[in-house]
Amino acid sequence: MPNTLRTAQTIATAVALLFCVSLRAQPLEIDIVGGQEAAQPIAVTPFHWIGESANKDLSRVVIEDLRRTGRFDVLSSGKLPALPGALDSVELAEWRQTDVEALLVGTTEENRDGTITVRCRLYQTFTGEVMDEFAYAGGMDDARQIGHRISNRVYKTLTGEEGVFETRWAYVKVAVSGSATPVGRPSGYKRTYELIISDWDGENPS
């Protein structure tokens, strides 16, 4: 009986070892279920300009900000069914035909003191709900920054997450004059470094 028991234990151990070796020999497989949701279809109309100076169309800043996230499918300008001149002159029926889920319209007004005021309204096209309405003001030189601020507001409303469009990048630009040689550097060789700070999209470097 003891010999039979030892034999059974030996066989069980061998089977267990073979099972472990078999498991280790299997290649590692990772199944990814799900992924990035489909981009949300939205439309951003050119902001109607009210003023005598050159048009500051901030809608282009907003469009590029949202498009770069990959989370939004922005309707191309050639497919816009209308160009509203005011926040309340929107016929949502024609926008529903484009299948966009959200619509941002805006106006930019030049004030007497040289500043601008940008007013925006964000519609849910299928229900007609005004999801958000807001206004930002600033100097002409702040136009792009206002555009990024609008992008943050729209992004937060549509996703529930904070946007990063007002982020500033800092990087070092290296400039080299002269040329290096295999045996050393000539007397004219010079390397200079310059700290550059820009908007998150690389614009407005300083």
Task: Explain what this protein looks like in three dimensions.
This protein has 206 residues and is α/β, with parallel strands linked by helices. The protein is built from four helices and eight strands; from the N terminus they run H-E-E-H-E-H-E-E-E-H-E-E. Strands 1, 2, 3, 4, 5 and 6 form a six-stranded mixed sheet that branches. Strand 4 (102-110) and strand 5 (115-124) form a beta hairpin. Helix 2 packs across helix 4. The protein is globular, with a radius of gyration of 30 Å. 21% of the residues are buried. Mean pLDDT is 80; it is low at 1-35.
Mean pLDDT: 80
Structural class: alpha/beta
Q: Helices and strands, in N-to-C order?
A: HEEHEHEEEHEE
Q: What general form does the structure show?
A: globular
Q: Supply Rg.
A: 30 Å
The stretches of 5 or more residues where confidence is low (pLDDT under 50) are 1-35
**Count of beta strands:** 8
